[in-house]
Amino acid sequence: MRIHHSDIRGILLFLACLTLPSTPWRVIIPLPEHGLLAGRGKIEESDIAFLKVGVTTRGEVLLRFGEPDGVLLDQRILAYSWAVSVGVVAVGSGGGDIWKYYLFMVEFDEEGRLKREEINSNRTWQNLEAMLEEWIKQSENENIRGKPCKD
Question: Would 105 be classed as within a structural domain?
Answer without folding.
Answer: yes
